[in-house]
Amino acid sequence: MDFPQKSRSRRAEIRKNRPDAGRADWQQLKAAGVPLSVGIAVAFFMLTAAVLLLAVVMLLIARDRRMGERSAAVWWVIPLTVLMVNVHLFACAVPLYVGVLLLGALWERRGAMEPPDWPEGDRRVRRTLALLAGTGLACFCTPMIDGFPAALMHLQFDPIVTGPVIAEYQPFYRGGLGVVAAFIISSLVVSAYINRRLLRAGDVMWLLLSFTMLLRMGRFAPIFAVGAAPVFAATLPALSEGVLGRRIVTALAAVVLAAGSWQIGTALPDEQRTLEQWLNRLGPDTPGYPTDAAAYVETNIRPQTGRLINEYTWGGYLEWRLRDRFQMLVDGRTQCFSGEFWRLTYLGGEDARREFFARIRADAAILPVQRSTFHEALTDLGWTSVYADDRAEVLLPPKSMLGPTDPPARTAAGADVDWAWPAALFGRE
Prior knowledge:
Elements: H1 8-17, H2 26-30, H3 34-44, H4 46-66, H5 77-85, H6 93-111, H7 118-138, H8 148-157, H9 159-162, H10 178-194, H11 201-216, H12 221-235, H13 241-244, H14 247-266, H15 275-279, H16 291-300, E1 307-310, H17 315-321, E2 327-328, H18 339-347, H19 350-358, E3 364-368, H20 375-380, E4 384-388, E5 392-396, H21 399-402, H22 417-426
Parallel strand pairs: 1-2, 1-3
Antiparallel strand pairs: 3-5, 4-5
Helix pairs in contact: 4-5, 4-12, 5-7, 6-7, 6-11, 10-12, 11-12, 18-19
């Protein structure tokens, strides 16, 4: 059975138009030194950039509300949203936040203001409505707009996203520090409830909405943290300035921040270390990538089918590292695979996995040494280990599964019978 062909035709087109695509000399890349390394690091942390932009947006809106909705700087929120929408889907949180504030302004207009103050309430409603229209239109200022609705629906209903496999898609209270996080956030919410008189209607609505999002998926934690910070700042018990206001405390806090910034800066890759060394610099007990296993496959495995079995978390790295030699089974683009594919590989149990891999033809498999989902199914089918380190393992198939497959039968209409099954799993070009 063939692997999904979701990207091969695109790669062929690129290579036809640019014969040298994907073959840049690594030594030439290293000559760029620190600027290139910093660029690679930034590319890995687009989410960080999105969260930073979201924090600036929330700061401008909070400042505007503190000034009675009269700040001219708040209109910078619209171009910042345009920038953010080309970085990450978190940009959708901006019009959502402004929309909640509009509902709060409407509530205040008729529920908390006396008739003499209604003109001021109407002005705030009109101003917030204009900001909502601007931020909403800003979310359309991206060439990726065609995929936005499908991506949002995917996050809500795709079985791999709603299932128990991917950690970032689980509720925030699951995981090693889940109990601690639940206790801290519950304490903050209780404090906000006790001091709710200090909050405006829009603040309360946003806190409830963002908390519901956090319960649904831990990936929304940055949105909750940035949006709820002003609420908690207003409702938490006041801290004594007798200690925090001392110069020695201020100086120590500055030293800690400077040391942390230095540590982050020196952790970025440089020309003294290869990218492979930098990726796994924290050791095998922390999340990393199968750099040595990929090097083994690159050196010792001759492509026959040109396919390689891998697990979800390493697909992107292996596609980059072995891009000219092998096609991966799966990567982090969960929207590129059907629900049936996820059922057979991750959600359906060992019997479903064995049935699936019995129909796969691949040259090798790169799997985690610990807590591998595919290892048992492959070894039951006769796959054997030929390389292992403290992070990854390379398995080879039995000879009966390595040879070329028979030509697929064809229907009367001329379609490949053998292709109907993988097409149902992986979708079509």
